[in-house]
Specification:
- It contains 26 helices and 15 strands.
- By secondary structure, it is α/β, with parallel strands linked by helices.
- Strands 1-15-14-13-2-10-12-11 form an eight-stranded mixed sheet, with helices on both faces. Strands 3, 4, 5, 6, 7, 8 and 9 form a seven-stranded antiparallel sheet that branches.
- The protein is elongated.
């Protein structure tokens, strides 16, 4: 019989240790915290399609943002058109361009809406619909124009009209005599921030003739400049990615204060792929970025971009170790949205873009993204605080019970024949479940968003958790020693007399209740030390967390003073009060040791906090030569923990790029502009 009892006792002890070592609620709390956060983000007009995107948004280093509709109002204003045909009038040119737009009942983009509204100032809708749209070619980023086949119902006249990017329109026309003049006009408009649209119409022979240029202006949003400043202050670089003319992008960037190192995508395509190719171009040692990767890393944005170029930009930024966010709205943006860690479908995006995105915005503008980023950093901190607490609690329980099994109650207490100290299984289950259930309220705790992109910094998490956990474990082991000293003794003084007034002695069951209460209190109260990097009182906990703490600790105090759980016996109210005081004193010691730990981590540089944009912020307008850019990239990889990128993958990537890959463009043989390096500014 004795052997059987010993086996059952051993199994019970093993179960206790198993329960203590498994953080049962960690996944539940983390998921609940992010789910609650996703609900809060929805109230900020950002719908989360993938919960893990919240964590990635908190650590985002670079946001590649579209210009139209995100940085600007997407409310175009049509200025006086420039005529290139003496027989053409302003009103006729605007009418022709409106005929190459989607009809009102079919839905229109901002450009078509602007042109159509301007045309309807001169003619009525009835007159407009006298021109029947026989066929329509919608806008395609690869050809950058729309085209419509029109038939006049009154006269029977049939013709084609097209509008779009002026260089592409000129390619359709036999207009060598006016090509230089037209392109000069486009450049002049772009320098003033105007978007230029060329318009052409077919003559009697069916040949396109260039007739004029429309000038449109899309003003920046009122809050965009302030929003970009907020993003930069929080360590996030905003890169403009737009299909507009380079000069327009530079002017818009200048107005928004986001850096004017904007390259044409042609420069990116023509840039050398690697150092060997750069050397063959004779660019090594220059003060400019040499390779395509370095050009993308150093730029503030790119203009005249096609959807496939967005994918390439995201890929290069990721290879440099950054967490990248990308905005998009069209079907062709889906690959880049899927490639980025945080794909963001802006307001009004197509179904394909929404399906590929991780976050869907229901309100236009960049401020929605920044608000979502701030909220995600708060959510990240809550999850991180919980993980620190839970690891510390697990360390406390598992190591305490490991040490406790070496204590032999039968030698210290006359009322038991237990050979090892242990708590009833139900008591340990209560400690774990009640505390974890109450700590679910940390999902709404008060936190302050970090000023830099967030990362787990697991070394710091484990070190701080270990300090908190082993401090609490030491506290409980010391109390266990005091409890055992109150066993078979007739002492009249000593620590045991502080806890037990009656003859300074206690039964084994009372010592079990003593430790049960201490473990409950110290386990839960650790969360108040884990939730802050500074002193525990520097940030007020949320009301829900305080209420849950009061409920958990008072209920456990009631059980310790009134209930009989297995072999446990109630302790007096006086003893419970002393345990409370003892635990609070050790909590203050625990918080002091936490502060010392963070100080040592920062002083010794155990965790490198200088992530990508901290380096950018340190040199806001510094000029960097090729060697410094390489060092910059190396520091970046090390700071975000991705220094060792798979060599095989890099080789495959370079081979893919050299053979055309993502850089191939159907009109690449027409590109006569070679890469002219520009000064790199940060």
């Amino acid at each position: 019989g004795t052997g059987k009892n010993e086996i059952l006792t051993s199994i019970g002890t093993a179960v206790v240790l198993l329960i203590a070592s498994i953080p049962i609620a960690m996944q539940v709390v983390a998921t609940v915290t992010m789910a609650v956060g996703a609900n809060l983000l929805a109230s900020k007009k950002a719908i989360v399609a993938r919960l893990s995107a919240i964590e990635e948004l908190a650590g985002m280093h670079t946001l590649c943002s579209d210009k139209t509709g995100t940085l600007t109002l997407n409310q175009l204003r049509l200025d006086k058109p420039i005529i290139f045909d003496s027989k053409m009038t302003d009103e006729r040119l605007i009418l022709l361009s409106s005929l190459a737009a989607k009809r009102l009942d079919e839905g229109q983009d901002a450009i078509d809406t602007c042109i159509m509204n301007k045309a309807l100032e001169s003619i009525s809708k009835k007159e407009m619909f006298e021109y029947e749209q026989v066929a329509f070619l919608p806008f395609d980023p690869s050809i950058k124009r729309t085209e419509a086949t029109i038939e006049n119902k009154k006269t029977g006249e049939k013709f084609k009209v097209t509008k779009g990017a002026t260089p592409q329109i000129l390619e359709l026309c036999d207009s060598k005599s006016i090509e230089a003049k037209a392109l000069k006009v486009v450049d002049q408009l772009a320098d003033r921030g105007y978007r230029a649209l060329g318009v052409a119409v077919t003559n009697e022979q069916g040949i396109f003739k260039f007739v004029g240029v429309l000038s449109l202006f899309d003003p920046p949003r009122v809050d965009t400049k302030q929003t970009i400043e907020r993003a930069q202050a929080m360590g996030v670089q905003v890169k403009m990615i737009t299909g507009d003319h380079t000069a327009i992008a530079i002017e818009t960037a200048r107005r928004l204060g986001m850096g004017t190192t904007i390259h044409s995508v042609k420069a990116m395509r023509d840039a050398p792929i690697d150092g060997e190719e750069a050397k063959s171009h004779g660019e090594i040692g220059s003060s400019e970025p040499n390779t395509k990767d370095e050009l993308i890393l150093a730029a503030d944005g790119f203009a005249e971009v096609l959807p496939e170029d967005k994918f390439k930009i995201v890929e290069v930024l990721q290879l440099s170790g950054q967490i990248v966010g990308m905005t998009g709205d069209g079907v062709n943006d889906a690959p880049a949205l899927k490639k980025a860690e945080i794909g963001i479908a802006v307001e009004g995006a197509t179904d394909a873009a929404r399906a590929a995105a991780d976050i869907v915005l229901t309100e236009p503008g960049l401020s929605v993204i920044i608000d979502a980023m701030i909220m995600s950093r708060k959510i990240f901190q809550r999850v991180r605080n919980y993980c620190t607490y839970r690891i510390a609690g697990t360390i406390q329980l598992i190591f305490f019970f490991f040490v406790a099994v070496f204590f032999r109650p039968e030698n210290s207490f006359h009322d038991t024949d237990e050979k090892n100290f242990r708590l009833p299984v139900l008591a340990v289950v209560l400690i774990t479940l009640v505390n974890d259930a109450c700590v679910l309220t940390i999902s709404r705790d008060n936190v302050t968003p970090a000023k830099d992109p967030q990362a787990w910094h697991l070394e710091e998490v484990f070190i701080v958790s270990a300090v908190l956990g082993f401090t609490a474990m030491t506290e409980s082991v010391l109390l266990l020693l005091i409890g055992f000293s109150a066993g078979n003794s007739d002492r009249t003084e000593g620590p045991a007399c502080i806890f037990f007034k009656d003859n300074c002695s206690a039964s084994f069951g009372q010592v079990q209740s003593l430790l049960f209460l201490n473990l409950c209190l110290s386990d839960f109260i650790t969360v108040f030390a884990a939730r802050t990097r500074s002193w525990f009182f520097t940030r007020r906990p949320a009301f829900a967390l305080i209420a849950a703490g009061v409920l958990a600790t008072l209920s456990m105090t009631f059980i310790a003073t009134e209930a009989h759980l297995g072999s446990m016996r109630p302790i007096t109210a006086y003893t419970a009060v002393i345990v409370w005081a003892y635990t609070l004193i050790w909590f203050l010691i625990q918080d002091c040791l936490k502060m010392a730990t963070y100080y040592l981590i920062d002083t010794l540089g155990i965790v490198d906090r200088s992530a990508y944009l901290n380096l950018v912020k340190q040199k806001p307008k510094g000029r960097m030569d090729a060697e410094n850019i390489r060092k910059f990239s190396q520091n970046l990889r090390a700071s975000v923990g991705k220094a060792s990128i798979d060599y095989t993958f890099q080789q495959a990537y370079r081979k893919f790029s050299q053979t055309g890959g993502a850089d191939h463009h159907p009109r690449a043989d027409r590109l006569s502009v070679s890469w002219a390096p520009r000064t790199v500014e940060f």
